[in-house]
Amino acid sequence: MLRFVDPAVGVVRSLVGGYRREIANMSWLFLDRFVRVLGNFIIGILAARLLGPADYGGISYAQALSALLLLLASLGLNQVVVKRLIDDPGSARETLGAAFALQTIATIATMTVTIAIATLSRESDRYAILVAIVAMGLILRPTEVFRYWFEAHVNAKRAVIADNIAFFLSAIAKLGVLYAFRTVESFAWTLVAEQVLMGACLAVAYRTDRQRSGLWTVRVEVVRRLAMDAWPLFLSGMAIVIYMRVDQFVIMATHGAAETGIYAAAVRLSEIFYVLPTIVATSFFPRWQGLLAQSGTAHHSAVRSAMTAMVVVSGMIALVVSLAAGPFVHLLYDRRYDPAVPVLAIHIWTSVFVSMGILGNQWYLSHNLQSRTLLFTLLGAGANFLINLALVPSMGATGGAIASLGAQMIAAFLADAFSARTRPLFAIKVAALCWPVTASWRRLTSRPAAADQHG
């Protein structure tokens, strides 16, 4: 037995020793995501049960639109700023100052336009008012720049503590409001409180960090460079939000709020697993960037290992959830949400391709292929919109789930095959998808050889 245990222990120790900092950072990120995803999951279940499909569909619709607003305010700067802080730490003050200035301008513009549109809407347009309320939470969005600093320095601990203080306070408010008022308008105001608290706590976390950079400066040339580098990622992010949420818009337009609530209930169960590849990509990107500068082979190997691991884990989760979709829905919701069972069984498989897409985006950024990210994402968004138009009118929420899965397959997997510069990544993704088959084949073919040697 020791012949097998000792080598395994040695491998684990070597991996931990080589990636100790990343693993510690990933542990904090996992704790943060786990607490917040679990908390939001519980609150979402309670909201669905207390509000009912129609009102739950209304708040989900408002949140889908607010996701677009958050992206408008962030300008796609996250990965670009982190990369610049890693590559040129000496210019941190100029980088952070330029990013903060850009996000401040974008936040003010986004809030002003959104609230103005809601004000000019008909008084009976309840959903426009909900979007306007949620938009007010953007006021401290520029403080996300502090998070970029922590990510670049692989120091998630401070950001995690700040986020969770804000989350716990807002969670208490959400639960109280849900049970006291049971209206979507009151619940929307708790979303505003959460965003404001999160921004304030992030600011305190940065200000108390002894390793923070000095006084920020804003240089026009740095602002211009960040904007130029970020615009492909910004448009790509817009396309991602559109093709991940266009199904809700189409369902709302064709079947109304109740069907939207059914779809949102299933998607909430499915999307909780999207956090895993996000944690891996955020924690290991600084290491991957350093490996690329030292050795292209080492970088390729690291990306391939992470991609295979995430695809296998996501596939196993999808299989279990798909087979047990009925019990999951019946356990968490009431009988009004029974139509969500087939939606969940289909939509959960998007997690496999979402994992590919999130890790693949880091590969694009490392190789300065942000424009390909935009092109492939637009392709997926267009496909999702067309498939939704074709299926949702007749199939409702189930058609939306099929459209989401098809769009993810196109944007996160198949699109890489059409460009010579991204085919190496496509090969990595194919190998990851085929890993269970190839691993089983290697094991089967190695048995006769081992038996011959033994004989």
Describe this structure in words.
With 455 residues, the chain is mainly alpha-helical. The chain folds into two domains: 22-218, no CATH class; 231-439, no CATH class. The chain is built from 18 helices and no strands. The longest helix has 55 residues, at 20-74. The radius of gyration is 23 Å and the shape is globular. The two termini are 21 Å apart. Residues 1-16 have low confidence and may be disordered.
**Average pLDDT across residues?**
81
Order of helices and strands: HHHHHHHHHHHHHHHHHH
Number of strands: 0
Rg (C-alpha, Å)? 23 Å
Q: Residue share in helices?
A: over 70%
How many structural domains are formed by the residues?
2
Give the CA-CA distance, first to last residue: 21 Å
Q: Key terms for this structure?
A:
single chain, 455 residues, mainly alpha, 2 domains, globular
What is this structure's SSE topology?
Elements: H1 2-18, H2 20-74, H3 78-87, H4 92-120, H5 126-135, H6 144-152, H7 156-180, H8 184-207, H9 220-255, H10 257-271, H11 275-294, H12 296-323, H13 325-332, H14 340-347, H15 350-366, H16 370-395, H17 397-412, H18 423-454
Helix pairs in contact: 2-4, 2-5, 2-7, 2-8, 2-9, 2-10, 2-11, 3-6, 3-9, 4-5, 4-6, 4-9, 5-8, 6-7, 6-8, 7-8, 9-10, 9-16, 9-17, 10-14, 10-17, 11-12, 11-15, 12-15, 12-18, 13-14, 14-17, 15-17, 16-17
Short description:
The protein is mainly α. It has 18 helices and no strands.
